[in-house]
Amino acid sequence: MIEAARHAVAQYDGWSEIAWVVDRQPQHWRVQAWRIVYPAERGRNRCAPYAVRVIELKDDGEVLAYRNHL
């Protein structure tokens, strides 16, 4: 799922450094992509709260939705 989400993020936003959160929903996969903007920091401080995307995927990796998290 991360590879399919990585492809979608590259296509829409072009981010290279990303932290991933993957969650199985009843009907699909939900992947959060957090852009890493401060690589020297640790934990959540590495990511920007304004740069989070949610990608919903079918089991085969097909993108159902791509949107801002907030």
The shape is globular
Spatial gap, N to C terminus: 21 Å
N-to-C SSE string, H for helix and E for strand = HEEEE
> How many runs of DSSP E, i.e. beta strands?
4
Strand arrangement, largest sheet?
1-2-3-4
Proportion of beta-strand residues: over 45%
Mean pLDDT: 94
How much is the radius of gyration in Å? 12 Å
Into which percent range does the helicity of residues fall? 10-25%
Helix/strand-derived category reads: alpha+beta
Parts with pLDDT < 50 across at least 5 consecutive residues: none
- Helix count equals 1
**Biggest sheet overview:** 4 strands, antiparallel
Task: Give an account of the 3D structure.
This protein has 70 residues and is of the alpha+beta class. Helices cover 16% and strands 46% of the residues. It has a 4-stranded antiparallel β-sheet, with helices on one face. It starts with a helix and ends with a strand.
Write a compact overview of the structure shown.
By secondary structure, this protein is of the alpha+beta class.
What's the topology here?
Elements: H1 2-12, E1 18-24, E2 29-36, E3 47-57, E4 63-68
Antiparallel strand pairs: 1-2, 2-3, 3-4
Main attributes of the structure:
70 residues; four-stranded antiparallel sheet; globular
